[in-house]
Amino acid sequence: MTSAIRTVLYDLDGTILDTNELIIQSFLHALQDVVPEGFGREQIIPSMGQPLLNQMQLFSNLEEVSQLISRYREFNLRQHDEYVKPFPHVAEVMARLQQSGLQQGIVTTKIRLTTEKGLRFTEIYDYVTPGAIVTIDDVEQAKPHPEPILKAIEALGADPATTIMVGDSTVDMIAAEAAGCIPVGVAWSLKGEAILRESGAKHIIHDMRDLFELLGMEREPIA
């Protein structure tokens, strides 16, 4: 890939922010006395990245899950700062891409409240191009539908052909391909690298700084 790429979109959870344990613990808290004994991270991880409503219905076998979602969000907000941190080199890479003139956006299945809370808490909010945060609150159809990615591309006046979508889940890869941009998976995904390749990832990065090579940049800036 070359410097023809002008726009970088990121999923949030599990991609640039390490919220994995917070998500797992939030589910375990919300689903106490609802799921069978032995329910745990092995059941939760495969569906991470999907909308919360869908996951709660899947895990609980209930149609009406508003109370479970409320319990999840109360715990998630209360414990947020104890668990959330950026993955290694995220701030460094986003800062340099911003300085290089690339547009950067967020496309997530989280609600806006916790999306902005996480970005501000980890001090990477200012690296995102203004207006380029698309959450579950902003769309009719969530990933894997391409709508959220297309909405971010439209907001930026970008071209799908010169846009990469970086994510940790199958829904990110499927949505990116459907939107006409380039799907890039992260090897630190809890779902595993093979799953991302099977779902359409054209590239896999093992370190956030691998984006520099994909974008035709030197790994270390020239002094």
TrEMBL record:
GO MF term set: inorganic diphosphate phosphatase activity
Keyword Hydrolase listed: yes
Catalytic class of the enzyme: hydrolase
Gene3D superfamilies (UniProt xref): HAD superfamily/HAD-like, Putative phosphatase, domain 2
Pfam family, one: HAD_2
The protein's Enzyme Commission number: 3.6.1.1
Organism superkingdom: Bacteria
Name recorded for this polypeptide: Pyrophosphatase PpaX
Organism field: Paenibacillus aurantiacus
